[in-house]
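Issue 218. Parser rejects a valid record. Input:
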Amino acid sequence: MLCVGLKILPFLPFMEKLISAGPARTSVPDCFILPPELRPSPRASSGSASLPVIDLGRGRDEVRRAIVDACRDIGFFQVVNHGVSEPAMRDMEAVCEEFFKLPAADKMAYYSEDTCMPNRVFSGDMYGDKGYWRDCLRLACSIPVGDTSKDWPDKPRRLREVAENFAVQTRGVGMELLRLLCEGLELRPDYFEGDITGGGLAIKVNHYPPSPDPSLTLGMRPHHDKNLITLLLAGSVPGLEVAYKGEWISVEPVAPDALSVNFGLLLEVVTNGRLKSVEHRVVNNSALARTSVAVFILPVAGSLIGPAEEFLGGDDNDDPPSYRPAIYNQFTR
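Output the parser choked on:
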């Protein structure tokens, strides 16, 4: 038996483990129907909004101010002129969509319900609950990539090459955003280099098949990212929603070359709560499949995470630590 929220769910052999591997559904199976208070009903959303758009080609002072302002307001933003090439983005979108169109046997060769497996295909959410309308391909990527990709799927043929290229370029953008954030927060520019970003990348290719009734289920539960920074290639189909002023805001993509960016719980800890991690979720679409690619920059598993001295009070202790220091792999649990 599997537990989702307050529900106890039976094992789902009829879904053939992956939603995208089974037949199209004309109704939502009972195991995917959330309790009424957790459903994405129209009353729970205040409409759509465009995230702040930051042009990284503008002056450095303007960009770092915009990043800090976005973090203090909505907590998410989009970046353009970021340096990830358009061919790298389009190739990544194409090869990921192609992966989820593979025959079931090809995808199931990498299926695992072991949440500790670094490379796997699974259904449900990141916590192991299967009752969410999502399939996911997770890839672990060291930097430099080296031999990491040898354990990735070998189909489609170009997946390894394309994903490596996309990962390297996207990490470069993430590290530059962190340097700009450091400047805006008056930290030393290299504060986020080293162990706190030295654990490589996790790439999650999220595939949300069309749902027979998106009002009854979710693609991903409300959650906070547990890393420092996440970059998302969101695709053209909306689905991301961000908690903002007590409402759920549907995020509309501004341009096909934009990357969505959010900071996770680690930044909240490092800044002693000055900047907050923002809750977000994914809703489904009744007509269109949605595929997105999230790149998470991770710390070294054994690194110590805690508030930076720059955000703590002096001898008068006016600003005491709000978070205990913790080893990262303990923090994530």
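Fixed in the parser; the record now loads. Confidence is low (pLDDT under 50) at residues 1-14.
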